[in-house]
Design a protein that fits this description.
GO terms for molecular function: dTDP-4-dehydrorhamnose 3,5-epimerase activity. With 187 residues, the chain is mainly β. The protein contains 1 helix and 13 strands, in the order ββββαβββββββββ. A 6-stranded antiparallel β-sheet has the order 1-2-10-7-12-5, with no helix packed on it. Strands 9-8-11-6-13 form a 5-stranded antiparallel β-sheet, with no helix packed on it.
Length: 187
């Protein structure tokens, strides 16, 4: 596996090696010791999956607060997504900045998003399935978000991004300027 640091400290794109022949391929997609060496000492305690039927489905931007703040290891197993992380660490030089990676089964790549970031994605093809492992279990009282189209963040979503696909919760998320300082670089 190759770990590629993105423009915001802490974000990693993981690119697996594939060994292929006429039968298909084999790929190691996760090894705990190597992952911890690059991402830090964390435990992945829950795995989630979502199916988005429509092209342009936007999910996010979501995060959970302490003590249930989640790191996420995101992988697209069918279809393709434009996957986004936004830095919410109030004392970070990159506070409010975003980075994105296109994830698909063809590339097999994954995105590591540590705690302190909001996460969201837009589907690029129909019937897209996204899997993600997280470092804390889901906690409804700690479930938060930020507006997917906040101009202060300025995410350059793909043309397919369809606001009509937003959940009721995501239609009402606050702006970055209205968030309390939930996260810091110190943890």
């Amino acid at each position: 596996m190759q770990f590629v640091e993105l423009s915001i400290p802490g974000l990693l794109e993981i690119q697996p090696k594939r060994l292929g022949d006429e039968r298909g391929y084999f790929s190691e997609i996760f090894r705990l010791a190597e992952f911890r060496n690059r991402a830090g000492d964390c435990d992945l305690v829950q795995e989630n999956e979502s199916l988005s039927a429509r092209v342009g489905t936007v999910r996010g931007l979501h995060f959970q607060t302490v003590p249930f703040a989640q790191g996420k290891l995101v992988r697209c197993t069918r279809g393709a997504i434009f996957d986004v992380a936004v830095d919410l660490r109030h004392d970070s030089e990159s506070y409010g900045a975003w980075a994105a990676v296109t994830l698909s089964p063809e590339t097999g790549n994954q995105l590591w998003i540590p705690p302190g970031f909001a996460h969201g994605f837009c589907t690029l093809v129909p019937d897209t399935i996204v899997n993600y492992k997280v470092t804390a279990v889901y906690s409804q009282p700690d479930d938060k978000g930020v507006a997917w189209n906040d101009p202060a963040i300025g995410i350059e979503w793909p043309a397919q991004a369809d606001p009509e696909t937003l959940s009721a919760k995501d239609r009402q998320q606050p702006l970055l300027a209205d968030l309390p300082p939930y996260f810091s670089m110190k943890g």
